[in-house]
Amino acid sequence: MAQSGINLERLAKVWALVEGGKEGEADAARTRAAAMIEPYGYVLDDIPGLLADAGFGDDLPQPEAGGFTVYNMSNPAHVRAWQREHDATRRRWMRDNADRIAEVIARYGSKEAVFAPTAEEKALDAAIEPFREVHPDNQADTFDGENFRPSPRVVEAMGQAIPWPDTIPAALAEYEAWDRLCDDRNVADGNNQYDYLSNGADKRRWHLCDMVEKLIPARDLSDVIVRLRFQLDGQGSRDSPQAVLDDLERLQAAGGGASETRESPGLSLDADTPGNEGDKVGNPHVWAGPNLDTPPPFKLNTAGKRRAEVERILATPEGKHMPLREIAAIVGVSPSTVLNIRRRMAT
C-alpha cells in the first residue's frame, strides 16, 4: 500500500503538534504533515485514520497480525484502511493525469457534458424500456430476462431505433465509438471504474461485440483479418474460431480467397498482433499512470493463460473489489476484456 512509504512514527509526532501545539506551531506542523502525505495521494483528513490504523491511538479497531488487506472485509479497520488507500490511489491518478482530464472536459465543453446522455443513448434506452423487469432486494433489473447480452426481441427493438451495421468494419467502428465514450467518462470521473454507458448503450455494445466476433459474415479476407484481430484482442474472452473457419470456407468456395484486402478504419495490416513483445494491450490511459510503464513481472504469453489469470484474480476476495483497469494492467489485457470475463463468470 502507498502508506508504507510514509514515516508514520514521525507523522504521529508532527500531528501531535497540529492537535496540541500553539497557533503558529500548529500551522507549521500542519504544513509539514501535508508535505509528508500528499506525495502518496493522502489529504489531511486521512491522517487520524492512518495513525489509528498503525496503532497510534486506541479509539479505532486495530489491524490484525497480517496488517490491513482487502481479504478481511469483515474488520471495520481493514475496510477503512482499504477505502483510504483506494481514495488515495484515485487522487494520485487524477494528479498524474490532470492534462488528460482537462483535455477530455475541454473536448466536450464541460464535465457535465461528458456525462450527459447522448441522443443515441436516449433512443436506445427508450427502445428497451418496454422489456424492463424490476427485481426486489436491490437486484439489478433485467430486460426480457437477460442481464447482459440482449435477447433477440431487444436486439430487434434496438435495430428499429438505430439500424444495425451490416459489415464487420462498420460494427467495429461503432463498438469502438462506445468504448471511447466510456473511456472519456472514466477519465473525467477520475478513474472511478464505473459502467458509464446507459442500459441501452451497454446492451448495444454487447451485441456489436458479437456481430464483430461471429455474427456478420465476412465479405473478403480483409474482414476475416479484422474479425480475427478483434478476437485476439479479447485475450480469450472472444474466442470464436468456428466463425473464422466458416468465413474462410465460404470465401474459398466462392473463389474469394485471393480477393484484394482492404484496410478497415483504425487498423493496419502491418500492426503487431496482441501478444508480441512490447505490446501494451488495452486503452492508452491504462498505461499512463504511475508504476504501469513496465510489463508485469510474470509472462502470460497466450490468450488462455491471460484469461485464466484474470479469472483467478476475479475469484479472490480482493479481486472482486479491484478496479477493472488495475486487473487489466496486472495481466496485460484491456479493461473491456476483464469486464467481459467478469460478466461471464457472474452468469
Write the layout of secondary structure elements.
Blueprint: H1 8-20, H2 23-37, H3 47-53, H4 76-96, H5 98-108, H6 111-115, H7 119-128, E1 132-133, E2 142-143, H8 152-161, H9 168-188, H10 199-215, H11 221-233, H12 241-253, H13 303-314, H14 324-331, H15 335-346
Helix pairs in contact: 1-2, 5-9, 7-8, 7-10, 9-10, 11-12, 13-15, 14-15
Task: From the structure above, extract its key features.
mainly alpha; two-stranded antiparallel ribbon; 2 strands; 54% helix
Model description:
The protein has 347 residues and is mainly alpha-helical. It has a domain at 2-96. 54% of the residues lie in helices and 1% in strands. A two-stranded antiparallel ribbon has the order 1-2. The longest helix is centred in the N-terminal third of the chain and has 21 residues, at 76-96. It starts with 7 loop residues before the first helix and ends with a helix.
Short structural summary:
With 347 residues, the protein is an all-alpha fold.
Mean pLDDT rating: 78
Q: Assess the beta-strand content as a share of residues.
A: under 5%
General shape? elongated
User: Secondary-structure element sequence?
Assistant: HHHHHHHEEHHHHHHHH
Describe the biggest sheet? 2 strands, antiparallel
Q: Radius of gyration in whole Å, from Cα?
A: 24 Å
* Alpha-beta classification: mainly alpha
Question: Termini distance?
Answer: 32 Å
